[in-house]
Amino acid sequence: MEVPFVRVPRERGETTRRTLAEADLIADGYEIEVESGDLYIPVVDPNAVADDLEVVIRSAVERETQTTPADILGFDPSYERLGRAVLVDEDDEERAAEIAAAVLESDLPVETVLNKASKIKGETRVRDWELLAGENTEVVHREYGCEFGLDLAAVYFSPRLATERHRVAGQVREDERAFDMFAGVGPFVIPFAKRGATCVGVDVNGDAIEYLRENASRNGVADRVTAVHDDVRAIAPEYEGWADRVVMNLPHSADEFLESAVTIAGDDCVVHYYDIQHEDDPFGPGERAIREAAEPEYAVTVETRRTVRSYAPHELNVCLDVRLERT
Ligand code: SAM
């Protein structure tokens, strides 16, 4: 079985193992191995590992003592991990309860099991959850060296976008001003601020903004983060011409906010525009909408057209990185 491992020189092995263990990142089901002076530590989520650690994929030896939910159930249930929670999507109540019991009985470092009880909905994009095990819907999630506290019943959060967020964060420069129009609990804002950017995050969901403030402190970047609880259309004029970078992660309706994005954009600004479109023309509608909102005041250059993930049959979640230069 191929799994992700952190590779470190043996002399740094124990310190690294302890750091990964404290972050609940060690995949306990596999053996830690030594080879040619390096220690290989299996990890549960390569995206959550700090940037300065090297991750390699290699075949792993299973530890015999480890009991997985599948061992107990006799089938392999599908689930996501978020901090010390397991998230399932089961319609059948009995099957959901059976999986929850097996998860708790297994050796997974998990205390909460949640079942998706609705689609994401409304302006705040929050879904309902059924608490199958554990005390509440709050979790602490780690992603690329950042830590996020959040309550799944009160805010939107998806760990599936971790790689995409890391890609965008990699473009951020130390001295820039970044504005996240739909910031949530801060998964763009916090890594941007960690790279030295001055950030503003806006959200219409007051709970998300409270978590964003808490997460800024938790990650030591509160001095570089302004969290605003408002409709971004109302606050945009206060930040006219302010931003070097704008993030628009509200697929389905980002086009309705392009006028505000153009207001916030400075003379030379990159906009990360997320969209969900049919696979036949996933980038065309977004590009046309951006040109319509920004031209001729700005010259518009599409720098990246990226498919983030498949969203539904024939529908793609995409991102356009677009540079706006004032003419
Ligand atoms: N960027 C975050 C992330 O990646 O986890 C959150 C993205 S979520 C898809 C969209 C967010 O936009 C939600 O937190 C929602 O509350 C917020 N939102 C929706 N309409 C808004 C508006 N008019 N002004 C500000 N925020 C809004």
Pick out its properties.
327 residues, alpha/beta, 7-stranded mixed β-sheet, 4-stranded antiparallel β-sheet, 24% helix, globular, binds S-adenosylmethionine
Give a structural overview.
The chain is of the alpha/beta class. Helices cover 24% and strands 35% of the residues. It has helices at residues 13-22, 69-73, 93-105, 162-169, 189-194, 206-218, 232-235, 258-264, 284-294, and strands at residues 2-9, 33-35, 38-42, 54-59, 80-82, 85-88, 112-116, 129-133, 138-143, 146-151, 177-180, 198-203, 225-229, 243-248, 265-278, 298-312, 315-326. The strands form 4 sheets. The chain has a 7-stranded mixed beta sheet with strand order 13-12-11-14-15-17-16. The chain is globular, with a radius of gyration of 21 Å. The mean pLDDT is 95. S-adenosylmethionine (SAM) is lined by residues 123-125, 156-157, 161, 182-184, 187-188, 202-205, 208, 231-233, 249-250.
Quick one: how many beta strands? Answer: 17
So what's the overall shape?
Answer: globular
**Cofactors and ligands:** S-adenosylmethionine
Task: Report how far the terminal alpha carbons are from each other.
Answer: 55 Å
Which regions have little confidence, pLDDT < 50, spanning 5+ residues?
none
Cα gyration radius (Å): 21 Å
